[in-house]
């Protein structure tokens, strides 16, 4: 994602790259970013000093890990930079910490930066609101074999949308990873299933099923560049907004 973001920024006439971060000890730190990426020299060195980099930025694009994202949220708030978060696997405590940072700066956080996925989220909420618990809901997602968290952040986002549509808390109805003699499906549960294999970019399907009929809402990502473009759109959108914790539906004008 980092390299895709760099390429998209460099191709834009509205954006300028002022810094690139890697974790301490990474072999790119101190090297020219362009050369490290296997291209031409860019005159910008990769750094492990987030505070210094953020002080020069109007926006920070963050696809990292939960611990790093929480730390970055505080630094971005200090710099009053828009913090666009695509990191997944965040805990409730992590999100609470990000909420605190959002009191002082703009945070745009989404389990998926795809505009299409976020439209799908809105549709899932509407369909769930229209159908009662006689319709079973299952969220099925597929990703490449390197992905470390399951269900994906997008799957959880879709599950949250379905739960909101039904007026229930996802934590109370979530059903994950069935195995063995599990008994009959509990009425009103929202099921999750994760597939991992090969180089699958990202596929998400929400199934609404009742005896005699099914509704399937699905999004397929075939190019990771779409996530970079969505994140950069969010960074531009946030420039004139007041402090707060926003999502991609806000960026789309659907929040």
N/C terminus separation: 26 Å
Run of helices and strands: HHHEHEHEHEHHEEEEHEH
CATH architecture of the largest domain: 3-Layer(aba) Sandwich
Question: Could you state the CATH homologous superfamily of the largest domain?
Answer: NAD(P)-binding Rossmann-like Domain
**Mean pLDDT score, rounded?**
95
- Amount of beta strand: 15-25%
What level of helicity do the residues show? Answer: 25-40%
From the spread of the alpha carbons, the general shape counts as elongated
Could you tell me the CATH topology label of the largest domain. Answer: Rossmann fold
What is the C-level CATH assignment of the largest domain? Answer: Alpha Beta
Instruction: Domain count, please report it.
Output: 2
How do the strands line up in the largest sheet?
Answer: 5-6-4-7-8
Structural class: alpha/beta
Count of helical stretches? 10
- Kindly provide the radius of gyration, computed on alpha-carbon positions and rounded to a whole number of angstroms: 20 Å
> How many strand units?
9
Low-confidence stretches: none
Largest sheet: 5 strands, mixed
Domain Dihydrodipicolinate reductase C-terminal: 116-252
Binding site for (S)-2,3,4,5-tetrahydrodipicolinate: 144, 153-154
GO molecular function: 4-hydroxy-tetrahydrodipicolinate reductase; NAD binding; NADP binding; oxidoreductase activity, acting on CH or CH2 groups, NAD or NADP as acceptor
Pathway: Amino-acid biosynthesis; L-lysine biosynthesis via DAP pathway; (S)-tetrahydrodipicolinate from L-aspartate: step 4/4
């Amino acid at each position: 994602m980092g390299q895709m973001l760099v390429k998209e920024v460099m191709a834009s006439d509205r954006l300028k790259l002022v810094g690139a971060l890697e974790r301490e000890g990474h072999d790119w730190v101190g090297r020219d970013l362009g050369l490290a990426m296997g291209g031409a020299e860019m005159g910008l060195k990769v750094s492990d000093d987030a505070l210094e980099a953020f002080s020069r930025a109007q926006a920070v694009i963050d696809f990292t890990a939960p611990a790093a994202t929480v730390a970055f949220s505080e630094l971005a708030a200090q710099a009053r930079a828009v913090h666009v978060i695509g990191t997944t696997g965040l805990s409730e405590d992590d999100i609470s910490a990000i909420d605190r940072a959002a009191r002082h700066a703009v945070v745009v956080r989404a389990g998926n930066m795809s505009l299409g996925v976020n439209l799908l989220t809105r549709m899932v909420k509407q369909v769930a609101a229209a159908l009662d618990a006689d319709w079973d809901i299952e969220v099925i997602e597929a990703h490449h074999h390197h992905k470390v968290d399951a269900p994906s952040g997008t799957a959880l986002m879709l599950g949250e949308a379905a739960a909101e549509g039904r007026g229930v808390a996802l934590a109370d109805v979530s059903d994950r990873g069935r195995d063995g003699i599990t008994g009959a499906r509990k009425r009103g549960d929202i099921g999750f299933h994760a597939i991992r294999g090969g180089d699958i970019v990202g596929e998400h399907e929400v199934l609404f099923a009742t005896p005699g009929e099914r509704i399937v809402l699905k999004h397929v990502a075939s190019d990771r560049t779409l996530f970079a473009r969505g994140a950069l759109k969010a960074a531009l959108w946030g420039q004139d907004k007041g402090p707060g914790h926003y999502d991609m539906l806000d960026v789309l004008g659907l929040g």
